Amino acid sequence: MQKKVPLSEKEKKEWYIKDVLIDSIPGISLHRVYDSILVNHNNEEGKEIIIAILDSEIDIDHEELKNNIWKNIDEIPGNGIDDDNNGYIDDVYGWNFLGNSKGDNNNFTSYEYTRYLKKYNSNFKGKKYEEIEPKDSILFRNYLRAIDKYESQLKYAKEDLEYGNMLSSSMKNVKKEIAKFISYTDYTIKDLDSLKNIFPNNKELQEAIIIRSNFIKYSFTQNYIDNYKLNAEERINKLLNLKFDDRKITGDDSEDINDINYGNSFVNKNINLFTHGTEVAGTILNLKNKNVKIMPVCVSPMGDEHDKDIALGIRYAVDNGAKVINMSFGKEFSLHTEWVFDAFKYAEKHNVLIVSSCGNSKYNLTNYNDYYPNDNINNGKEVCDNFILVGGITNNLSKKILYRHSNYGSIDVDVFAPADDIYTTTPNNGYKLDSGTSLASAITSGVAGLIYSYYPNLTASQVKHILMNSGLEYTFEVATPTKEDKKKTTPFNKLSKSGKVLNAYNAFIMADSISRK
Fold it and tell me: pLDDT per residue over 152-181, tens digit each?
């Protein structure tokens, strides 16, 4: 096998749109779509397609996004009136299901397993299986699972806080020691090395220099340490707090799907706190489909999404013209799966495709049945045929093709797409390379939008199966270790239902054929 040639800086930013036959990189062959197919479309511009992003807030003013943000032209901005009578006041650029009419937005919500305990402690706390009625056996199983998850995560959060306090104390002490010898604070490792040579016998200074140098080397700034501590504190005080009311701001009843009078139109108020939605939007628009409009639908805070917000968010997107809905989030518990399933069916009825990420926990979802959102209701039986779950790959055309954190599974995961080192947007006109199945889902949504743009007569089910069936198949043996077999490998094409990797060029050829028929 030829030695892999390192990618250039430009190639690192574009690898996922390249072609495996031309570039020997498992990209989605997007260049071939534009160069070989769309160039022959008789100058056809394609139809405008709305892709709704159910996620965190989005920087709608970003230089790369602002010209492709959906606008509700039937709504007059800021007049406090529901001009189009869609049930949402001033929803010019989308809707935020985490806020209230005063403009306050909920940045933190409980984990779903915390909500599980809050809801069922009165029914099950302290009980054993033999005390549970058969009709409640599944609920009780999930309740015990929630206890295990809650206790382990609370332990980790407390350990993180202790570690953050240690870092903070250490930073304070070493800065104080070094300040005895250096009057300025923006010193470098080179400066510290010089100081080290000047005072070789000063033990306290030598130790402080070593610690401070490591802080600089690994970017442990005071801001990083403060945020690390804050993250742990928020998890303990809010996300894992059984007394925390995570609907106090929204003011609705999270147990009532018909209580819909909450939320607001601020879809970019906290973009510096939450960057995920902006990254997903940038990834979709990086496919250079000028016909795509991004519809922000905010449901993702720090913590787990409420099933109610997910369900209502899907319905909002459908009712306001979205053709594709991207949901790059996941959780291991779901209190109201039925609400989400009903929303899936509602989208299916209106011919809307839902694309979701399969998660970054290295789980084999065939053996781990508790991942949401998912359309799998019984060992492969799906609740609808418009939902596609996407796993992640790297740019390595080898046994390392599986993205190291991606979940997988031949029953749940439908197809794989690029997920590692994806160049995308961040708030305030920023850019970065990031990784995760969230971005694999976004790329898949982008390709789906491109197909819809030129073949609008296709159904959501047809587009789903085109994306699955037109992909490229790789048979590399990839690492899929288990507790019993740490060295276990599996052919890559056995890790998803289709066994394939998304390929835009092949998808267009298949879409054209099916559309003509």
Answer: 999 999 999 999 999 999 999 999 999 999
CA distance 170 to 164: 10
Which helix (DSSP H) or strand (DSSP E) does residue 25 occupy?
A: none
Q: Which amino acid is at 308?
A: K
- Which of 243, 213, 281, 317 minimizes the C-alpha distance to 69? 281
- pLDDT tens for 33-92 read 988 888 776 557 889 999 999 999 999 999 999 999 999 999 999 999 999 999 999 999
Beta strands 49-55 and 292-298 are parallel
Contact status, residue 137 vs residue 145, Cβ threshold 8 Å = no
Main-chain phi, psi angles of 461, to 5 degrees: -65, -40
d(CA 264, CA 511): 38
Residue 269, both tokens? 């108020």
- A 10 A CB-CB count for 381 gives 9
Chain Cα centroid distance, residue 124? 33
Rounded to whole angstroms, how far apart are CA atoms 259 and 305? 17
Indicate the pTM of the whole model: 0.93
Q: 466: which 2 tokens?
A: 């085109």
Helix or strand holding residue 173 (H, E): helix 137-179
SS3 370: coil
| Token pair belonging to 302 | 């720090």
Yes or no: say if 386 and 347 are a contact pair by the CB < 8 Å rule. Answer: yes
Instruction: Provide the token pair at 118.
Output: 């809050």
Nearest to 355 by CA among 367, 346, 347: 347
CB 418 within 8 A of CB 373: no
